[in-house]
Amino acid sequence: MCARRWQMTHGVSDRRETGVSGEDIAAVHLARRGWLIVARNWRCRSGEIDIIARDPDGVLVVVEVKTRRGLGFGDPLESLTYAKVRRLKGLAMEWVRSQEDAVGPVRLDAIGVLLDADAAPRLRHVRNLEQP
């Protein structure tokens, strides 16, 4: 089976579209609350950061967005494991090192987006993932 047909029959394209939709919703949510979106989908060899933004207090925030179309596999944020958070911290530090100017304090947040065909998207924003 060719790769494209496999993707179509196994929902890879649908998952990608779901993820992009969730990131768009999260970015609009943050911007409406006065956050400045600095970058989206920043990539390096180690991975990708969904959103990099400055909150109204001036803190640089690396935001991981998790999106689901239902609760069949649990809440979107339940997929954030210790290993994933650790990897995100490493990605955040790589981004900071790539900047020419000092960026100041950095925080790691996550936004879970639940898309429901019958209702408006629901968001849950968790701040300071690195804090116990």
From TrEMBL:
The lineage of its organism: Bacteria, Bacillati, Actinomycetota, Actinomycetes, Propionibacteriales. This is UPF0102 protein ET996_03845. Pfam families: UPF0102. It comes from Propioniciclava tarda. It comes from the Bacteria. Belongs to the UPF0102 family. InterPro entries: Restrct_endonuc-II-like, tRNA_endonuc-like_dom_sf, UPF0102_YraN-like. GO terms for molecular function: nucleic acid binding.
